[in-house]
């Protein structure tokens, strides 16, 4: 199984930290933020990675290289200034991701989720990992019913930014920028999105305050 780490975002909420440093390279407890998911994927046996980049992307390539020091092989998907949004970024990288289901991980999360090679159930287009709603996102995103993810009212959980997708999810989509969420909601209406609830550690590192909080947490061991 191959995996993609999304690292092309501008990181506007992180400014001024991201004015001269791409968000995935911001330091946390002595490492770059993006080092954590790469190390976790490597430990799990997922060694073929694709990483997209846009803003200050040359720094990302210089830092990570071909991935050898992490025990993985990295290919890069370059995007234009302004990036392609999540859906467009994944679609551009599809030729490098192959014809089987692939894992996608947001580059601005930190988690102890146990990544592992896996496949989709027959008939599914996606599998999402959902977590408890953080304080900054109390309404959540989707509901989970007997292993199926739905977009409906009621008790909701937050999408963790970790998902398994089949390439056919992106059939008929345009070249250029487009969001991922409408594709997922359409697949949910057809009952083609499975999911799981993860109760372990997870953080969305979307602001300087949350970055500092994670740094304090990890430095405490």
> Radius of gyration from the CA trace?
17 Å
Low-confidence stretches: none
- CATH level-four homologous superfamily name: Spore Coat Polysaccharide Biosynthesis Protein SpsA, Chain A
Strand order of the largest sheet: 5-4-1-6-11-8-12
So what's the CATH class? Answer: Alpha Beta
CATH architecture: Alpha-Beta Complex
How is the main sheet built?
7 strands, mixed
Q: Write the element-wise H/E pattern from the N-terminal end onward.
A: EEEHEHEHEEEEEEHEEH
Distance between the termini: 31 Å
Q: Give the helix proportion (percent range).
A: 10-25%
General shape: globular
What is the third-level CATH name, the topology?
Answer: Spore Coat Polysaccharide Biosynthesis Protein SpsA, Chain A
Number of strands: 13
How is the secondary structure organized here?
Elements: E1 2-6, E2 27-28, E3 31-32, H1 35-43, E4 48-53, H2 57-64, E5 73-78, H3 85-97, E6 102-106, E7 109-111, E8 126-131, E9 143-145, E10 148-150, E11 158-165, H4 181-189, E12 193-197, E13 202-204, H5 208-219
Parallel strand pairs: 1-4, 1-6, 4-5, 8-12
Antiparallel strand pairs: 2-3, 6-11, 7-13, 8-11, 9-10
Please give a structural write-up.
The chain is α/β, with parallel strands linked by helices and 221 residues long. It has one domain: Spore Coat Polysaccharide Biosynthesis Protein SpsA, Chain A. 23% of the residues lie in helices and 26% in strands. The chain has helices at 35-43, 57-64, 85-97, 181-189, 208-219; strands at residues 2-6, 27-28, 31-32, 48-53, 73-78, 102-106, 109-111, 126-131, 143-145, 148-150, 158-165, 193-197, 202-204. The strands form four sheets. A seven-stranded mixed β-sheet has the order 5-4-1-6-11-8-12. A two-stranded antiparallel sheet has the order 2-3. β2 and β3 (31-32) form a beta hairpin. The mean pLDDT is 94.
